[in-house]
């Protein structure tokens, strides 16, 4: 058998193999997982969260709590800064990709720090790092418990609610590490804000 | 809880999980690639494609099969991307632009999974599934096949053949990757990773603003992406996206998936060469590098040096709250040491020295434990070099596992080692040296100015040539120059080493085994493990120190 013919034959074998693999792995396998997903519809469809039967988002996808111009709405707990599109755009996930020596990043952090210190009436040095930095996905659904606690006074004042009540609510929404050491303690901002709205009689 | 304890507990959990699967999975892999028995479905498949599973191939034929299959893979993936608009579930997206489609086709076939595009805005579901997911499986299976062929060569005596590629490929998919992916995908799905065909849904959020909720068959993709050390994200944010990696536990699970097969292959190796101590020696070298590197990155990121990190009070830029610094550091280390290239934090925003460290991880040649298959054959080449170096020191003909390391073997191993650095250094240098290209790189591609911009380009070529696929993601890589040059780097960085590995397999297989004597260097003792680690570190340090000094080191010391 000539080597050229052997080589051509290899390509023919490869082509047939690729077609079969494509059907089995590209269609069969995801279809099987999709079928299993029917048994866990909440997870398969993105863990939706509803208020009064209406979906307002996903517990896994962070949201902005800002006005049209991007200004923080004081009556809501704020999510982290986001580099996804104009902020929490799930059609354009991603981080800022600014290096730590980037001047752009440094000045953004300074601006955020000043803005939060002013709106929340706190010492700039006490603001936790997650409040000042954009996440990797731009869709981080959570903030650190420290950042949530830091916002209590502002939120309570904006809604004329007792500060202790709001503080209590935050503590209820603090999720610890699983098994005590996996992941980090967090507060889910959307879930916290939904509970906050339910608490507020003026809402 | 303090960072040290957290790191020890999380890393310890991973080591425990890996310890549990090491023997059963490694032994299972050895059986899969040694048995003469074929499953009924495999026999039907061999009949259909016209392969006789009983016929073993010489190394040149084995190589031609690898190349033919990969070439068809590139072609198929290119065509699927270019015809996206007529395929179902394209989400209304146009055909992928030619240079990006070419780059992506190579990227997924070479198990690199470098992404010069933003997936949400470029790839519909059909391309993701029948294009990318398929290559996630088969490129991984090709890697394992080549590694197994090399092990067979080391174990064989006076044999002209090294196995049958089509059989190795099929078994890798049918008996290993597919069943494990199904299990992993179900675990991820139940933990919150989505699996649907919903497209982008728009809901009214709490403040009345519109919120987009993306859809997609993500769980199935995510499972094989980590298990096959592929790393190409369904979303632009990759494993930082909450729909790919929803919580701290899935983060740990995904790290485990990346490590499971590359680590267990050390056991497979020990079993096939019939000396488990050899497997443990390889495993130790891999494990020590991985643990040290993960510890170092955790220290560097926790220290949070650098202007912006210090202003913010911690290096949280580009990191997710739920993973924190420890979860992100272990993930980043594992991903860059396994040639996966998935990210759960943005490497571009790591501290300067942290960014340098993940680059060094890749520069070590992806051997600790490396990609599926490619990691094992990579470290076996390093072992051969280590034996050779030791042989020079004592003036004896070096042997590894009873095989003489003669002139031919050393030449092949040396060429293997030279390919990747050549691609990295030449690619980076040309990006700045060619005047026409220089402008496009500096003005269009680099996101950060100066030293860090240079690091972005160096990272890109390191990642491509080592078939890792992670990025300093600020870099805009979808320019004609970078799409083309990185495509070439990925292609040569994958297949030239495979040529040399298979040639070595053939050359070892043909040899008789020389008996062990008092003068034989034992290759299972701590002394050899140290020698092996030394060889890995020194070879890459000598090669890359100057280019690192220009980038991350200069940045970090500024």
TrEMBL record, chain A:
| Organism, scientific name | Lacisediminihabitans profunda
TM annotation in the entry: 12-40
Q: Which gene underlies this protein? A: kdpC
Q: Which InterPro entries match?
A: KdpC
The places in or outside the cell where this protein is found are:
Cell membrane
Superkingdom, taxonomy of origin: Bacteria
Query: What are the record keywords, sorted?
Result: ATP-binding, Cell membrane, Ion transport, Membrane, Nucleotide-binding, Potassium, Potassium transport, Transmembrane, Transmembrane helix, Transport
This protein's membrane topology, according to the annotation, is: Single-pass membrane protein
Please tell me whether the keyword ATP-binding is annotated for this protein.
Answer: yes
Principal place where this protein is found?
Answer: membrane
| Record note on quaternary structure | The system is composed of three essential subunits: KdpA, KdpB and KdpC.
Select a single GO molecular function from the record's annotations and give it.
ATP binding
Task: Name a Pfam family for this protein.
Answer: KdpC
GO CC, sorted alphabetically, is: plasma membrane
Annotated region (Disordered), positions in chain: 120-140
Q: Is this entry keyworded Thylakoid?
A: no
Summarizing the function annotation, the protein's role is: Part of the high-affinity ATP-driven potassium transport (or Kdp) system, which catalyzes the hydrolysis of ATP coupled with the electrogenic transport of potassium into the cytoplasm. This subunit acts as a catalytic chaperone that increases the ATP-binding affinity of the ATP-hydrolyzing subunit KdpB by the formation of a transient KdpB/KdpC/ATP ternary complex.
The record's similarity note reads: Belongs to the KdpC family.
Q: What is this protein called?
A: Potassium-transporting ATPase KdpC subunit
From TrEMBL, chain B:
Q: Name one Pfam family in it.
A: KdpA
Q: Does the keyword Nucleotide-binding apply?
A: no
An example Gene Ontology molecular-function term: P-type potassium transmembrane transporter activity
Give TM segment ranges: 61-80, 129-151, 172-194, 249-269, 281-303, 323-343, 350-368, 374-394, 415-437, 484-508, 528-550
The topology of this chain with respect to the membrane is: Multi-pass membrane protein
Question: Cell membrane: present as a keyword of the record?
Answer: yes
Subcellular location field:
Cell membrane
Question: Do you know which InterPro entries this protein is assigned to?
Answer: KdpA
What does UniProt give as GO cellular component? Answer: plasma membrane
Highest taxon, organism lineage: Bacteria
Keywords of this entry = Cell membrane, Ion transport, Membrane, Potassium, Potassium transport, Transmembrane, Transmembrane helix, Transport
So what does this one do? Part of the high-affinity ATP-driven potassium transport (or Kdp) system, which catalyzes the hydrolysis of ATP coupled with the electrogenic transport of potassium into the cytoplasm. This subunit binds the extracellular potassium ions and delivers the ions to the membrane domain of KdpB through an intramembrane tunnel.
Subunit structure comment from the entry: The system is composed of three essential subunits: KdpA, KdpB and KdpC.
Q: Family per UniProt?
A: Belongs to the KdpA family.
Full protein name = Potassium-transporting ATPase potassium-binding subunit
Source species of the chain: Lacisediminihabitans profunda
Encoded by which gene? kdpA
């Amino acid at each position: 058998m000539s080597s050229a013919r052997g080589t051509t034959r290899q390509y023919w074998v490869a082509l047939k193999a690729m077609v079969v693999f494509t059907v089995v792995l590209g269609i069969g396998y995801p279809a099987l997982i999709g079928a299993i997903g029917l048994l866990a519809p909440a997870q398969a469809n993105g863990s939706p969260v509803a208020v009064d039967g209406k979906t307002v988002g996903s517990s896994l996808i962070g949201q902005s709590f800002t006005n049209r111009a991007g200004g923080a709405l004081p009556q809501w707990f704020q999510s982290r800064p986001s580099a996804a599109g104009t902020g929490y755009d799930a059609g354009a996930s991603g981080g800022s990709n600014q290096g730590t020596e980037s001047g752009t990043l440094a000045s953004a952090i300074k601006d955020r720090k000043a803005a939060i210190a002013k709106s929340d009436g706190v010492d700039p040095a006490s603001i936790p790092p997650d409040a000042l930095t954009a996440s990797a996905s731009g869709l981080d659904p959570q903030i650190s418990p420290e950042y949530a606690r830091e916002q209590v006074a502002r939120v309570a004042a904006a809604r004329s609610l007792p500060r202790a009540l709001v503080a209590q609510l935050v503590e209820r929404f603090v999720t610890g590490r699983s098994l005590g050491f996996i992941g980090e303690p967090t507060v889910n901002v959307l879930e916290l804000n939904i509970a906050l709205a339910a608490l507020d009689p003026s809402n | 809880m303090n960072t040290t304890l957290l790191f020890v507990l999380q890393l310890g959990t991973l080591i425990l999980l890996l310890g549990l699967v090491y023997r059963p999975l490694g032994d299972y892999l050895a059986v899969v690639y040694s048995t003469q028995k074929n499953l009924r479905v495999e026999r039907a498949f061999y009949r259909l494609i016209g392969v006789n599973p009983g016929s073993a191939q010489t190394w040149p034929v084995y190589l031609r099969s690898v190349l033919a299959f990969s070439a068809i893979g590139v072609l198929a993936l290119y065509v699927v991307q270019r015809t996206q608009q007529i395929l179902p579930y394209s989400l209304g997206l146009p055909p992928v632009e030619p240079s990006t489609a070419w780059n992506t086709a190579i990227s997924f076939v070479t198990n690199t999974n470098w992404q010069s595009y933003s997936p949400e805005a470029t790839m519909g579901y059909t391309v993701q599934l029948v294009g990318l997911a398929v290559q996630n499986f088969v490129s991984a299976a090709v890697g394992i096949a080549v590694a197994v062929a090399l092990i067979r060569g080391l174990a064989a005596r006076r044999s002209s053949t090294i196995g049958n590629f089509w059989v190795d490929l099929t078994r890798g998919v049918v008996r290993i990757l597919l069943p494990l992916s199904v299990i992993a995908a179900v675990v991820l799905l139940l933990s919150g990773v989505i699996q649907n065909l919903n497209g982008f849904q728009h809901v009214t959020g709490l403040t009345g603003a519109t919120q987009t909720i993306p859809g997609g068959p993500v769980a199935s993709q995510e499972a094989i992406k980590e298990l096959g050390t592929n790393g190409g994200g369904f979303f632009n944010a990759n494993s930082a996206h909450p729909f790919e990696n929803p919580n701290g536990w899935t983060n740990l699970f995904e790290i485990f998936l990346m490590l499971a097969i590359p680590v267990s292959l050390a056991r497979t190796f020990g079993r096939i060469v019939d000396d488990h101590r050899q497997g443990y020696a390889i495993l130790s070298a891999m494990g020590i590098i991985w643990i040290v590197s993960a510890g170092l990155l955790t220290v560097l990121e926790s220290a949070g040096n650098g202007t912006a990190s210090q202003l913010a009070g911690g290096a949280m830029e580009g990191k997710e709250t739920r993973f924190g610094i420890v979860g992100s550091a272990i993930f980043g280390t594992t991903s860059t040491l396994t040639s996966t290239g998935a990210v759960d934090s943005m490497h571009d925003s790591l501290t300067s020295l942290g960014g340098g460290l993940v680059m060094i991880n890749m520069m070590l040649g992806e051997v600790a434990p490396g990609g599926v298959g490619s990691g094992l054959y990579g470290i076996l080449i390093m072992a051969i070099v280590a034996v050779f170096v030791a042989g020079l020191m004592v003036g004896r003909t070096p042997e590894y596992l009873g095989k003489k390391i003669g002139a031919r073997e050393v030449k092949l191993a040396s060429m293997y080692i030279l390919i990747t650095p050549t691609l990295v250094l030449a690619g980076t240098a040309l990006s700045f040296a060619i005047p026409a290209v220089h402008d496009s790189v500096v003005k269009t591609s680099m996101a950060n100015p100066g030293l860090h911009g240079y690091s972005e380009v160096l990272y890109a070529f390191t990642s491509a040539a080592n078939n890792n696929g992670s990025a300093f993601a600020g870099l805009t890589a979808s320019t004609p120059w970078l799409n083309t040059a990185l495509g070439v780097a990925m292609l040569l960085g994958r297949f030239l080493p495979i040529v040399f590995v298979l040639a070595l397999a053939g050359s070892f297989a043909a040899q008789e085994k020389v008996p062990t004597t008092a003068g034989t260097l034992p290759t299972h003792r701590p002394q050899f493990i140290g020698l092996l680690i030394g060889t890995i570190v020194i070879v890459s340090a000598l090669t890359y120190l100057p280019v690192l000094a220009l980038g991350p080191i200069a940045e970090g010391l500024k």
